[in-house]
Amino acid sequence: MANNMMYACINRVKGLMSISDILGLFRRTLQVYIANISTITKIALSIFIPAQIITAIAVKCLPGFQGIFSEIWEEFKHRNDASFEPVSIEYRTEFFFFLIVYYLGYLLYCFATVAMIKVASDFQAGGEDTTFMGAIGAAMTWYPQVFLAGCLVVDVSTLGGLLFIIPGIFLVISFWLTKPVIVIEGTGIFLGMKRSWEITSGYRWDLLKILAMYLTTYFLIFSIFHLLLVLASAPTFLRLMLGFSIPIICLDPIVCILQTVVYFHLTERHEHDILAAEEPLMSLDEPGEIM
User: Fold this and answer.
1) Which stretches within 164-235 are classed as H helix?
2) Does the pLDDT of residue 95 top 70, yes or no?
3) Which of 135, 126, 123 is nearest to 46 (CA)?
4) Tens-place pLDDT, residues 222-244
5) Mean per-residue pLDDT for 112-132?
6) Whole-angstrom Cα distance, residue 291 to residue 154?
7) What pLDDT shows up at residue 66?
């Protein structure tokens, strides 16, 4: 009965993040970003942008790869037709070559993500400024686990999204804090996913609002910047280079910092929730007056 009362108290106080709380998380994210702008810019220029270039090469520059996803979708729709024929060996080879190049870019992206989480977590924990080499040192330690966890989360979320859209979104939110958990708590892949599931429990609706706000802001800034380049009659090459690299420098690091800020905020709220739930139980254990 005592345990049931504790869990009931926890459930009552969970998921109560107001709009001001959410905006406060974004303000804190900007504070961390501005305070560490020098290190963040170095990480973005040296790792984030090369990762994006490699991924762009995989999508745009591989021979015969144009429109491959639309072809895959068409094959999926007609897989039960009597006239359906599987893809050719050459087509499969191009696709697997794409995967190799894509995951190489994603590996670099995870390396940069670890470095950024290290910068943000040190600042959150005690206001410490992490140097560029210190962030790279942390990335050298944790990037294999973060890369494998990221691949696993993407695969699981994609599978959920293929079955139904809502389960995919639910899984993305539930495992969104896996990377900061691995870096900050030093956990393994599966334990990191489990901890992320626990931390996001009770706050998934709030996290959905946070992600929606971030993605909307990202899309608007990205679109406005590209529109300005088009209005300025910038050459296609310049639009591709500046149109992707500058938003990456400005916005990609922010999502890593935001994840770290949210991680600290939710772990603190969970601790507060448990303490708040235990207080009435402790008062029940105290001897009262005998009537």
Assistant:
1) 165-174, 178-185, 189-200, 204-231
2) no
3) 135
4) 788 778 877 887 776 666 666 66
5) 87
6) 62
7) 52
119: part of which helix (H) or strand (E)? helix 89-126
Across 166-206, the runs of DSSP E, i.e. the strands, are none
Closest CA to 183 of 228, 150, 226: 150
Strand positions, DSSP E, 73-183: none
Q: Highest mean pLDDT: which of 49-58, 123-132, 275-284?
A: 123-132
In sequence order, which residues have a C-beta less than 8 Å from that of residue 69 and are 6 or more positions away? none
Of the candidates 257, 215, 216, the residue with the CA atom closest to the CA atom of residue 25: 257
Q: What is the pLDDT of residues 46-65, one digit of tens each?
A: 887 787 777 666 665 555 45
Residue 76 to residues 123, 127, 152, Cα–Cα distance (Å): 47, 51, 23
| Neighbouring residues of 50: CB distance < 8 A, sequence distance ≥ 6 | 108
Residue owning tokens 């670099």: 108
Measured CA to CA, the distance from residue 237 to residue 10 in angstroms comes to 54
Give the CA dihedral 214, 54, 135, 188, nearest 10 degrees.
80
The answer on pLDDT for 72 being more than 70 is no
Tokens of 80: 């039960």
Q: DSSP assignment, residue 234?
A: -
More confident residue, 54 or 183: 183
In whole angstroms, what is the distance from residue 257 CA to residue 118 CA?
9
pLDDT of residue 147: 92
As given in the structure block, the two tokens for residue 44 are 């973005």
In this prediction the pTM is 0.76
Q: How many beta carbons lie within 10 A of that of residue 203, not counting itself? A: 20
Between CA 124 and CA 140 the distance in angstroms is 21
CB atoms within 10 A of CB 91: 15
